[in-house]
Amino acid sequence: MFRFIHSSDLHLGKRFGNFSGDLPSRLREARHAVIARLAQHAREHGATTVLLAGDTFDTETPAPDVRRQALAEMRRHAPIQWVILPGNHDSLQATQLWTTLKAEAPENVILATEPRPITLATNVVLLPAPCTTRRPGRDLSAWFNTESTPEGTIRVGLAHGAIQSFSEEAAVTDVIAPDRARQAGLDYLALGDWHGAVAVDPRTHYSGTPEPDRFKHDRPGAALLVSIAAPTALPEVTSLETGSFAWSTLQMHLLDGDDPLQALDTLMPEESRRRQTLARVVATGRSRLAMRTALSAAIHDAVPDFAYLTLDDTDLATECEVADLDQIDQAGALREAANALLAEAGDESRAAVDREIARAALARLFSYAQKVAP
Predict the structure, then answer these.
(1) Whether residue 237 is found in the same domain as residue 302
(2) What pLDDT does residue 134 have?
(3) Counts of helices then strands in the chain (DSSP H, E)
(4) Higher per-residue pLDDT: 360 or 7
(5) Based on the number of CB atoms within 10 Å of its own CB, is 306 exposed (0-12), middle (13-18) or buried (19 or more)?
(6) Whether residues 218 and 306 fall in one domain
(7) How high does pLDDT run on average in the chain?
(8) The last residue of a domain, from among 241, 258, 286
C-alpha cells in the first residue's frame, strides 16, 4: 500500500491587494499555515509523501521570507517528503527561483524540475511534468506514455494545467489529454491548476487549493488522501478538509413582497464562523424600495462580524410606487429628483443598465431620506 497527500495551488505569498485592513495579511498567513495542516493529515493517515502539483508560490519572484519560511516548515515535518512541481505561476522560466530553491531545499524536499522518473518508495515511481513557462503551448505530460518502468511498479503522474477548457486561466493553449492516465498506464494522475477539487476519472484528480482564494469555486479548502494498494488497482481517494477561511456566495432570489431580511437571516452562517468567512450576498429578482434599502442597511450592520462581507444587488430590480416617493419628500427638490429617477428607471427606451443605475440611485436617495427623517 502506498499512501500520499495530493495538493496544489498553495499560492504562497499571494498579496490579496483587493482587500483592505489586516485581512490580506491574515489570508497570506493562512496559506503558509496550510503546510502544517497537510503534514498533520499525512501523519494521521500514514502518508509518507505530499505531492504539490504546481503553483506552490503565487509568483516567479516570491519574497525571500515566503520562500525560506515555507522550506523551513517543510523541513520541520520530516521525515514526510514533499515534492514541489513548477506550475504556471512559478514556472521554470523563473530560473533564479528554482536555482535558489535547489540551494536551500532540505533533504525531505524534492524539486520536480525535470521530466524524468523520481523514485518515491520501493516500487513507486513519480512521473512529473514541470511547467517550462506560464503557457508552454503543448501537453507536457505526453512523455509519460513512452516512459517505461519495471513490472510491478506503481506509476503516479504529476502535472499542472488544463484538461480541455477546464482551467483557471482565461486563455489556454496547453491542454493535458483527459485520458492521459489511461494512455500512460498511470495508477494515479495528480493535477493542479483548477482551484476546486474535481475527479476527472477514477485515476485522475484535481486536488483543488487547500486554502480558497476566491469566490469562483465556493467550496471548502481540501486536499486528497490517495491510497494505492498495488499496480493497476484503482486508487482510494478521500477528501480532507484543510482550509481555515470559507469563501461563500450566498444566493438570494426575491419576489415582490418577500422579506429580504428574513431571507438574509436564513443564509447567514453561524456567528462563530463569521470571523473566518468571506461572503458575497448576490440578490436577484424584484424588491420594493423600502425592502431593498433595509437589505443594504442589514448588510452594512453585519460587515464587522465577517472577515469580509459584500452585497451584489446588480440584478435586483426595484419596485417603486408614489407612496414610496412620499417617504423621500412630498415636494421640493428631493421629490423632483426622485420623480426623475423613477421615470428613468421605468423608461423602456433606455438601456437596461441605465434603468438599473436610476433604480440604484433612487434606492440610495431613499436610504438617505430615511436616515435624516425625524
Answers:
(1) no
(2) 85
(3) 9, 18
(4) 7
(5) buried
(6) no
(7) 91
(8) 241
In the predicted model, is pLDDT for residue 86 greater than 90? yes
Instruction: Report whether 170 contacts 178 (CB < 8 A).
Output: no
- What span, in angstroms and rounded, lies between the C-alpha atoms of 80 and 89? 25
- Whether 126 and 193 map to the same domain: the answer is yes
110 with 83: CB under 8 angstroms?
yes
Q: How many CB atoms lie within 10 A of CB 365?
A: 19
Q: Checking phi first, is residue 152 left (phi over 0); if not, alpha (psi -120 to 50) or beta? A: left
C-alpha cell at 135: 503557457
Buried/exposed 14-31: b ≥16 CB within 10 Å, e otherwise: bebeeeeeebeebbbebb
Q: Are residues 32 and 151 in the same domain?
A: yes
Residue that is last in its domain, among 241, 257, 273: 241
Shared domain check, 260 and 210: no
Task: Find which of 5-19, 173-187, 359-373 is predicted with most confidence, using mean pLDDT.
Answer: 5-19
The dihedral through the CA atoms of 325, 330, 332, 334 has a sign that is negative
Give residue 306's domain range: 246-372
The predicted structure's pLDDT at residue 137: 82
Q: Are residues 77 and 111 in the same domain?
A: yes
Crossing angle of helices 23-45 and 64-76, rounded to 10°? 20
> Is the pLDDT at 11 greater than 60, yes or no?
yes
Count of structural domains within the chain: 2
> Which tens digit of pLDDT belongs to each residue from 285-313?
988 888 888 898 999 999 999 999 999 98
DSSP code for 61: S
* Whether residue 335 sits in one domain with residue 212: no
Q: Which residues contact 189 (CB under 8 A, 6 or more apart)?
A: 141, 156, 157, 158, 159, 180, 181, 200, 203, 204, 205
Q: What is the CATH number of the domain that holds 41?
A: 3.60.21.10
